[in-house]
Amino acid sequence: MRIGKLREVQEREGLGAYILTRTPNVLYYTGSTSGGILISTLGEEPLLLVSRMNLEMARAEAKGCEIATYERKTLLRDIAERVRRADPKIVGFDELRLETFLKLRERLEGFRMEAKPEIIWEMRRIKDEEEVSRIRKACEIADAGMEAVRSSLKIGMREYEVAAELEYAMRRAGAESLAFETIVGSGPRSAYPHAGCRDRRIREGDLIVIDAGATYRGYRSDITRTFIIGRPSEEQRRIYETVLEANERALEGIREGVKGREVDAIAREVITKAGYGEFFTHSLGHGVGLEVHEPPSLSKESEDILKTGNIVTDEPGIYITGKGGVRIEDTVLVRKDGAERLTRFGKSLEDIIL
Amino acid sequence: MRIGKLREVQEREGLGAYILTRTPNVLYYTGSTSGGILISTLGEEPLLLVSRMNLEMARAEAKGCEIATYERKTLLRDIAERVRRADPKIVGFDELRLETFLKLRERLEGFRMEAKPEIIWEMRRIKDEEEVSRIRKACEIADAGMEAVRSSLKIGMREYEVAAELEYAMRRAGAESLAFETIVGSGPRSAYPHAGCRDRRIREGDLIVIDAGATYRGYRSDITRTFIIGRPSEEQRRIYETVLEANERALEGIREGVKGREVDAIAREVITKAGYGEFFTHSLGHGVGLEVHEPPSLSKESEDILKTGNIVTDEPGIYITGKGGVRIEDTVLVRKDGAERLTRFGKSLEDIIL
């Protein structure tokens, strides 16, 4: 099905051969988590080359393609052979490592090779019903993780102990893996958007930024909530409410036909008007699917036009060195007339003050 | 310190400029988890270019380098400017994406650009005392995870529930993240070396391959144990004992001066003699450090010569489609006269029969 559509696009674009090397792309087109190299030519059945170690997994999972094993030493020769047989005008590929590209280009002398990742993303960024339902479930699992944080977070806990409770709840709720490395940034560390998770102990009055997600049947979710134990200061409250307004206003602005930069601008304007513009140091959001960072992008420069079936994050933040940070993030589904929020965990001040 | 050593190597190799783009390499040379691009030239202080979002983290963590922010649009220009100023004979780099390489080569016309990852690995593969002690701790944490599996594994549990117990214990023991996605492959799925973790329920008599690791202060561990609930069949027992012997014999063969392929051959010979050679479908092991897969390699073709301070895995396996698989893996430290096992969880039949 999907591979058939890829071939239609190949025909349209004159790509007599297309080489897929990225594991999520192989999964998208074949259903197999085996990784490997998928070669789609117009004349023959697609060929999935896998390492011997992953052969049986590919046999059990991959649909719509021939399967063969490769040896590292002869892989490039095998790819070139298959491609040459198709005698393509252009050889497209999703991504090749520099060394692989240079070597393969030698073996494919006379053929034009072009990186064409966008034809894959054109398809992957529009989620079908089954994909939406898996991401919806991944979001429910992430919500369960946040519930566990709310009921266990205490003064004196270490950041990694907070992650323990969150991830345990996500696993028990059915996460087949984490969507990405959980962030627990507390106190001054909450001012680092990519704080990771360390051994710092939570103190009263800390802002605690928690960014996590789950994988369910290959599909991911992404949620951030910022908690605080005890009474927030006036400034903390002002920052929190600003970020929340930015998150909610952006959500209202998400719908089919709007550009990524327009949605980013909505959130950025709220934050700038409140006087915190310089502290919103990243983009508003990104697509989510088989990977946690995908197109389309909601950033200052993004010309991506949102379409029904896109799933994106809405995650404004304010980060002030020495004081701390606040980020509020939801995973949302783009529809014709608006957005549907898939992460449902509460985000009002009452929800996050413990 | 390390950056000083890098410059010595650059001088030796005629690399007037060296560009580091890989996050673990930036961490290794600066101590910063901020990511970014590190440019080491012979004339000036090293320059770390980070995204604005990660600036404060870099400022707090990075040592021995100048720090500046970059904009995506002007990053290549900034890199080229710094490199040109050093007027290098050769511009080395650890890794560049194909597109980045092509664009940068244009901006650096007249300079020779060469991928030189090996000069980094030369250093990174020899762990110093502090690195060994962190990996030792990461291994202790992984052992705690396996203990939790042993005490909680029951018939009827789903694979992801087993992962929940394992990861929860690792987090509580101080894991700052998982070293990689946990594998829980049970029953027929144990025959997939890269099984991932699904919702299958554990049954009596299943082989259950569990492959996991923890990160502690940036450094990783890697352990696999194969459990079975109830009485193993004669064949399961024979397979298990063969893999265990391969693991132990290889361990005895690990010492300074031995080649990767020689250690691989020890394990492979044990398995082949027992009649299972064709079912040992992967390499014996790989280096572990800031990343979970590093040089040196213990594989059929590896000419890597082991040195004191290498940390590698020893992980033979036998995988029989339809029947299941067994893998036993330790993380070990290479010493002058032998190997020290850093993962200590038991691996005799008594340890893994539940």
Q: Biggest interface, and residues per chain?
A: A-B, 45 and 45 residues
Poorly predicted regions of chain A: none
- Mean residue pLDDT of chain A: 97
* CATH topology category name of the largest domain in chain A: Creatine Amidinohydrolase
With helices defined by DSSP (H or I, 4 residues minimum), what is the helix count of chain A? Answer: 11
CATH architecture classification of the largest domain in chain A: Alpha-Beta Complex
What is the CATH top level name of the largest domain in chain A? Answer: Alpha Beta
Q: What is the topology, as strand order, of the major beta sheet of chain A?
A: 4-3-2-1-5-6
Specify the overall morphology of chain A: elongated
Question: What Rg of chain A do the Cα atoms give?
Answer: 23 Å
CATH superfamily of the largest domain in chain A: Creatinase/methionine aminopeptidase superfamily
Largest sheet of chain A: 6 strands, mixed
Number of domain units of chain A: 2
Written account of the structure:
- The structure is a homodimer of 354-residue chains.
- Chain A has 354 residues and is of the alpha+beta class.
- The first copy, chain A, has two domains: 2-124, 3-Layer(aba) Sandwich (Creatine Amidinohydrolase, Chain A, domain 1), CATH 3.40.350.10; 129-352, Creatinase/methionine aminopeptidase superfamily (Creatine Amidinohydrolase, Alpha-Beta Complex).
- Chain A is 38% helix and 22% strand.
- Chain A has eleven helices and 19 strands.
- In chain A, the strands form six sheets. A six-stranded mixed sheet of chain A has the order 4-3-2-1-5-6, sandwiched between helices. Chain A has a three-stranded antiparallel sheet with strand order 7-10-11.
- The longest helix of chain A has 24 residues, at 129-152.
- At the A-B interface, helix 3, helix 5, helix 8 and strand 7 of A face helix 3, helix 5, helix 8 and strand 7 of B.
